[in-house]
Amino acid sequence: MSTYAIGDIQGCYRDFKKLLKQMNFNKKKDTLWLAGDLVNKGPNSLDVIKYIMDLDTKAISVLGNHDFYLIASYFQAKTWPNKNKNFEEILSDKDSNEIIKWLRQQKLVYKDPELEYILVHAGIYPKWDLKDTFLMASNIEKLLKSKNCKAFVETLWSNIPNLWHKKLSDKEKLIFSTNAFTRMRYLKEDMSLDFEIKENPEENTLSTLTPWFEFDNKIYNKYKVIIGHWSTLGFRETKKIVSIDTGCVWGNKLTGIEIFKNKKVKKFQVQC
């Protein structure tokens, strides 16, 4: 029985299936972690999400920013940017209600104490400890599952506040937390989120910006964090993180890993 994780699929179903075959994934025995952004931009988002739904408890998926775009599109949230390029196939499908219901049940953050890994789409804000992280995630998850989901999603899209402090209102904390979990890459000198720069750290020339994972956090004393989202970062494994979004939807590669306790991951890739 093995545990695998795959980076941002974004509707690239054929490449997803090729990667599963390369990994020798056994859906009866193995567990598959998905780092978010299952949908959008690629040609077969519906096939991707239905396959993962069919895996049931053998799949553990966290929500990415494009998964939120799908939920917002379903509720016709006018406050969100128009990024629903490939959602019509899902929204017009006979199972669309069940698909969105399933998506709303997914986590923002997942941890495996045995393997000592955490799974999240973009990252964990450095000022949060483990308790803070899962409290913020739980607050978002409860609202996504609730009858008030539509109203919640309507208020969620904003780049403000981009700086965390405990005096934020409940609404502001939800906005900030969602952005940290699903959109974060760099932090500015005052620890505020930057939403503009997407280059990898080696290409970024702005000394005022620092990747979120370069800051110290006691979480790393026990857990390594698996992330997607940052395609220009590419695959990299450090003592703190494993980055597995390698830009399949942009014609690069789809990356998967096999996860072990106290060992480096085993990497799998297919050309997209």
How does this model look, in words?
With 272 residues, the protein is of the alpha/beta class. The chain has a single domain (3-271), classed as 4-Layer Sandwich (Purple Acid Phosphatase, chain A, domain 2), CATH 3.60.21.10. Helix content is 31%, strand content 17%. It has 8 helices and 13 strands. The strands form 3 sheets. It has a 5-stranded mixed β-sheet, with helices on one face. It has a 5-stranded mixed β-sheet with strand order 4-5-9-11-10, with helices on one face. Helix 6 packs across helix 8. The chain is globular, with a radius of gyration of 17 Å. The two termini are 27 Å apart.
Q: What is shown here, in short?
A:
This protein is of the alpha/beta class and 272 residues long. Helix content is 31%, strand content 17%.
Write the layout of secondary structure elements.
Layout: E1 3-6, H1 13-23, E2 31-34, H2 45-55, E3 59-61, H3 65-74, H4 88-91, H5 96-104, E4 109-112, E5 117-120, H6 130-145, H7 149-156, H8 170-183, E6 186-187, E7 193-194, E8 210-211, E9 224-227, E10 236-237, E11 241-243, E12 253-258, E13 266-271
Parallel strand pairs: 1-2, 2-3, 5-9, 9-11
Antiparallel strand pairs: 1-12, 4-5, 6-7, 6-8, 10-11, 12-13
Helix pairs in contact: 6-8
